[in-house]
From TrEMBL:
<dbReference type="InterPro" id="IPR016163">
    <property type="entry name" value="Ald_DH_C"/>
</dbReference>
<keyword id="KW-0560">Oxidoreductase</keyword>
<dbReference type="InterPro" id="IPR016160">
    <property type="entry name" value="Ald_DH_CS_CYS"/>
</dbReference>
<feature type="active site">
    <location>
        <position position="260"/>
    </location>
</feature>
<keyword id="KW-0520">NAD</keyword>
<dbReference type="InterPro" id="IPR016162">
    <property type="entry name" value="Ald_DH_N"/>
</dbReference>
<protein>
    <submittedName>
        <fullName>Aldehyde dehydrogenase</fullName>
    </submittedName>
</protein>
<dbReference type="InterPro" id="IPR029510">
    <property type="entry name" value="Ald_DH_CS_GLU"/>
</dbReference>
<dbReference type="Pfam" id="PF00171">
    <property type="entry name" value="Aldedh"/>
</dbReference>
<comment type="similarity">
    <text>Belongs to the aldehyde dehydrogenase family.</text>
</comment>
<dbReference type="InterPro" id="IPR016161">
    <property type="entry name" value="Ald_DH/histidinol_DH"/>
</dbReference>
<feature type="domain" description="Aldehyde dehydrogenase">
    <location>
        <begin position="25"/>
        <end position="485"/>
    </location>
</feature>
<dbReference type="InterPro" id="IPR015590">
    <property type="entry name" value="Aldehyde_DH_dom"/>
</dbReference>
Length: 489
């Protein structure tokens, strides 16, 4: 591989805060570096905001909200602007995809083929849906009651580093479609695609102050975004431990929260499954986005009767994964987001081996691609579900394989977890598919597939994986304030 392909730079405009429709420096003038995970070289300098900057952005969103310029705009006009944002995302798909790939370390074919188009779909979906929302109306004798849904107000959206543009637009499109104004904070590892979004908002005609984007430390800026009494909704995606802090902070002013948190989902393969299909789907479920996906099927539960046969096919398929420069079209797996994260993933593999896991493949850094955070796709097998590698979210390309004998045992292993985000079941027995999908304690469950989303359906997790559901009408309910009006006729 030619080293120059790894040092490709992209011109990143305006790596500043976006407040009240303008790009501005942090009040302190401070900046931090955004690093390319594939080279560990600087991509751009980014404004390092403070609590005061967060307050500025919240005030801008509050002024825009109170003016009614967005919250009282006819829904058809709001929808037109949001559709224009979707069009502009697709018009800029190549540049956005390249920035996302350089900032996150993910393969360009995923950024261009999935993340950015899905971001446009998020906007188009909620823009369209907002025009057709219906509300309840009940008659009882001579009493008529109906519900009126109004925007909630200023909304804080706090985003993680793994799927930054997709996650940001998933939240922002719904909050804006419901008539709110928003303050968005991307993660400090991956702020660049979010920063570019200000230009798109302006070009689409979104009024100033309706969308604000701030960059800087989660501890200070994030805490301002979750305690300020002017904020009326908080939607957070990130680690379960951060989610707890946010909920405590939000309690101070009783701000409603929606939390999409971590996962350690069971991917269960029964002996009657189509094994080739299950191998393909299970590879995707753990190694897509370098394993840095909350929904990852990171615990592979294999029925004992097919254990050896499946492992053989699976490991052969893992060896076909092409790891390399994320900007190249044929790369399947790129670099982990940071050196720190690489070390964490590596430490987990050591812990697993010490706990007694066997290493089927992987388990090493890759150093011949360049100076980036590359790690082999790794399979630990004969794992006990009680071990740390089976209980803790590794959030990298590390799969743990756990054997089971019966359906009941599979369900009990799947549910022996603090998390409850997703589950996957591979079987050709329709009754078993229904029994197991009902019994696994998770917010999402896929049968014979993984990560297929219909944006009308509820999305979210149970237990330590989150609170609340977004998607379709669930998003509109969260981002709105409902009022019941009752009239005696
Ligand atoms: P993180 O919790 O470290 O950070 C997420 C965001 O919160 C960042 O923008 C960060 O700056 C901000 N933040 C940090 N401390 C804060 C505070 N005290 N107050 C307010 N904001 C604060 O998570 P991460 O490492 O960026 O992302 C990885 C995690 O996200 C994994 O656990 C993954 O499972 C989870 N995730 C969940 C979903 C889901 O849909 N359930 C989706 C993607 C990622």
């Amino acid at each position: 591989m030619k080293p120059e392909t790894l040092t490709q730079q992209v011109k990143v405009n305006n790596a500043k805060l976006f407040i009240d429709g303008e790009y501005v420096d942090a009040l302190s003038g401070d900046t931090f570096e955004s690093i390319n995970p594939a080279t560990n070289q600087r991509l751009a300098l980014v404004a390092n905001g403070s609590e005061q900057d967060a307050k500025r952005a919240i005030q801008s969103a509050k002024n825009a909200y109170d003016s009614g310029v967005w919250s009282k705009m006819p829904v058809e006009d709001r929808s037109d602007i949001l559709c224009r944002m979707a069009d502009l995302i697709m018009k800029n798909v190549d540049e956005l995809a390249m920035v996302e790939t350089l900032d996150v370390g993910k393969p360009i074919k995923e950024s261009r083929g999935f993340d950015i188009p899905r971001a446009a779909s998020n906007f188009r979906f909620f823009a369209e849906m907002s025009k057709y929302m219906v509300s309840e109306h009940y008659d009882k004798h001579n009493i008529m009651s109906y519900a009126k849904y109004s925007p909630a107000g200023v909304t804080s959206l706090i985003i993680p580093w793994n799927l930054p543009f997709m996650q940001m637009t998933w939240k922002a499109s719904a909050a804006l479609a419901a008539g709110n104004t928003v303050v968005i904070k991307p993660a400090s590892y991956t702020p660049l695609s979010a920063v570019m979004f200000g230009d798109i908002a302006n070009e689409a005609g979104l009024p100033p102050g309706v969308l604000n984007i701030i960059t800087g430390p989660g501890s200070t800026m994030g805490s301002a975004m979750t305690t300020d009494p002017n904020v009326r909704r908080i939607s957070f995606v990130g680690e379960s431990s951060t989610g707890k802090t946010i909920m405590k902070n939000a309690a101070e002013n009783l701000i409603p929260v929606s939390l999409e948190l971590g996962g350690k989902s069971a991917n269960i393969v029964f002996e009657d499954a189509d094994l080739d299909e299950a191998v393909k789907g299970s590879i995707d479920a753990i190694y897509r986005n370098q394993g840095e996906i909350c929904l990852a099927g990171s615990r592979l539960l294999l029925q004992e009767s097919i254990y050896d046969q499946f492992m053989e096919k699976f490991v052969a398929a893992v060896k076909q994964i092409k790891i390399g420069d994320p900007t190249l079209e044929d790369t399947d797996m790129g670099a982990l987001v940071s050196k720190n994260h690489l070390e964490t993933v590596e430490a987990y593999v050591d812990i697993g081996v010490k706990e007694g896991a066997k290493l089927a493949c992987g388990g090493r850094r890759i150093t011949n691609i360049g100076d980036g955070n590359f790690y082999e796709p790794t399979v630990l097998y004969d794992v006990n579900n009680k071990w740390r590698v089976a209980q803790e979210e590794i959030f990298g390309p590390v799969l743990v394989v756990i054997p089971f004998k019966t359906e009941d045992e599979a369900v009990s292993i799947a549910n022996d977890s603090q998390y409850g985000l997703a589950g996957v079941v591979w079987t050709n027995d329709i009754r078993r598919a229904q029994r197991v999908s009902a019994a696994v304690d998770s917010g999402l469950l896929w049968i014979n597939c993984w990560y297929i989303r219909d944006l009308r359906t509820p999305f979210g997790g149970s237990k330590a994986s989150g609170i609340g559901r977004e998607g379709g009408r669930h998003s509109f309910e969260f981002y709105s304030e409902a009022k019941t009006i009752t009239m005696k006729l």
